[in-house]
Amino acid sequence: MSSNDRRGFLQKxxxxxxxxxxxxxTMAPQVFAQSSGAFTVDPANTSTPEIKxxxxxxFAAIGLDHAHIFGMIAAIQRGGxxxxxxxxxxxxxxxxxxxxxxxxxxxSEDEILNDKSIQLVAxxxxxxxxxxxxxxxxxxGKDYLADKPGITTLKQLADVRKAVKETGRKFAIMYSxxxxxxxxxxxxxxxxxxxxxxVVQTVNLAPHRVNAPSRPAWFFDxxxxxxxxxxxGSHQADQFLYYTNSTKAKVVAAQTGNVAYPQYPKFxxxxxxxMSGNGGTGYVRVDWYTPDGLATWGDGRLFVLGTEGxxxxxxxxxxxxxxxxxxxxxxxxxxQARYIDCNNVQLPFGPQFVADVVNRTQxxxxxxxxxxxxxxxxxxxxxxxxxxxx
Length: 390
Fold this sequence. Notes:
Layout: H1 3-23, H2 29-36, E1 39-41, E2 57-64, H3 68-78, E3 81-87, H4 91-100, E4 105-106, H5 109-114, E5 120-124, H6 130-139, E6 143-147, H7 154-167, E7 171-174, H8 176-179, H9 182-192, E8 199-207, H10 222-225, H11 228-231, H12 233-244, E9 249-257, E10 270-277, E11 280-287, E12 301-306, E13 309-314, E14 328-332, E15 337-341, H13 349-359, H14 367-383
Parallel strand pairs: 1-15, 2-3, 2-5, 3-4, 5-6, 6-7, 8-11
Antiparallel strand pairs: 8-12, 9-10, 10-11, 12-13, 13-14, 14-15
Helix pairs in contact: 3-13, 6-7, 12-14
């Protein structure tokens, strides 16, 4: 390719296209490793001890508009939480919840917020309603766990930070692609151990399947969900901050657009962003293009580059290897390349978070870091330009 042709290609492809072109060579070491027999399976690190609850709380669920609420409830229950009440108004949502959680009381929001025995509210209403709900819960003396995105505007973010400071309560956000994915949990442990040296960069590729016929109207309205970077990109901003151990960060560049769904003019189906923090740099690409031929909803991949090695996660599927299921971790260091099956790694968030509620600690999630992740994607949405795909 001549220099002029290459320049034209990069201008048309944009930031995401450039990295996508690189991914098949420089960012897919597991393909070469498997075909050459160059990696070893590590049997010593395929499981971690069961994490038992150390505390107990009563909690309630308000807002059932996203199925993530069920994963949130399961995490809190694993941690020692007892679900005592829920609030919803949609008859279909209420019927399903009653079936899944027989005996749990249907109550009004006021009943829940005024019940002093309830210490935590978990909420998954329509995204633009999540922050206001959390503020009401905190002002009622309760901690709050929001589905992502927990915050959809910078004004909401300012209001949340003000309420956290005034009430001393928690506004946690369930960034499940790190907190509830076993390979992501184990990657964090390896990084803390110094397995790849100092982290320099994270690269997150996060495709999703749109399933348009099953989606409610708000799903296609940017004003309701905040935009693609605010929504699914919030997971990736959280991972960038956590794995690089960044306490300060900024957005360097961002793109968002609607390429494949002109029938939904308020929808964004593609986005990417670059970030820089005081612990490293990060790149994120998110989209709604997962094809029907894939056996799961998205081929989520994370690459963590360190000064002495790198880690790749194939979180939900590994189309390159034929290995079934997800939670595939590859690590290459100065000695060898290894594959680790992380399906038996325990998930610590639930027990840690319930203990945090009781002990007023921040082990499961750092409050400032959780809100900084939200800030990054909200700022990225404000500066995002359309991708040059024409």
